[in-house]
Amino acid sequence: MPKIVSEQSFDGAEALIQRLGLDELLAEVRQIVTTFELLVEERKDANGSKVLRALIDQRFSAAGGWKQRKTGGVDWIKQQAINGRPRHICVGVEIQVSGRSDMLSVDLIHLRKQLLQGNIDLAVLVVPSDRLGYFLTDRVAKLSEAHRHIEMARADDMPFVLIAIEHDGTGPALPKQGKRSSKDEPKPGTQI
């Protein structure tokens, strides 16, 4: 199973987790990103990262209660009722295992916006460790780059948790998504 090799809390996130009882939702995030087999070929840029992203998205969907936003917002959000009342607490999760490292800044903006608007109470950002990132496709965000983006975006002043995952062993390469070429595109006027 993948393991969490780093977990860092920012701006009082630990106190917030305890005060609001967000530990169950955070434990669910940890379980989703770790309780499956993740074998990769341990060679630089050998593994397709989109396959890993699809696998994690599938696991959030199967866990139940998580709502996905495809573009322009936080990837996954889940609400939990407080003592069966209509009030609820909310965690938002950004998964950055397949995009270019500069997308980390965009993810941090999405998380900050949702926190400031009161749509989520705690933000979580999941990235590959530097070791796993080395084996994924070129330019994928890694833990060290996440730290750089957090500093540049001054995101260390918002309550969030940064989680880095690492594969559990060697295996066949994760398939890479083929690049589309102009030959793959239909010619104007042809029927599909």
Please tag this protein with its features.
single chain; 192 residues; alpha/beta; six-stranded mixed sheet; two-stranded parallel ribbon; 6 helices; 8 strands; 22% strand; disordered C terminus
Description:
This protein is α/β, with parallel strands linked by helices. Helix content is 33%, strand content 22%. The chain has six helices and eight strands, in the order βααβαβββαβααββ. It has helices at 13-20, 23-32, 49-63, 103-116, 130-135, 143-152; strands spanning 3-10, 39-40, 67-68, 76-81, 88-95, 122-128, 160-166, 169-170. The chain has a six-stranded mixed β-sheet, sandwiched between helices. A two-stranded parallel sheet has the order 2-8. The longest helix is centred in the N-terminal third of the chain and has 15 residues, at 49-63. The protein is globular, with a radius of gyration of 18 Å. It starts with a strand and ends in a 22-residue tail after the last strand.
Backbone shape: globular
Cα end-to-end separation: 42 Å
Order of helices and strands: EHHEHEEEHEHHEE
Major sheet size, sense and barrel closure: 6 strands, mixed
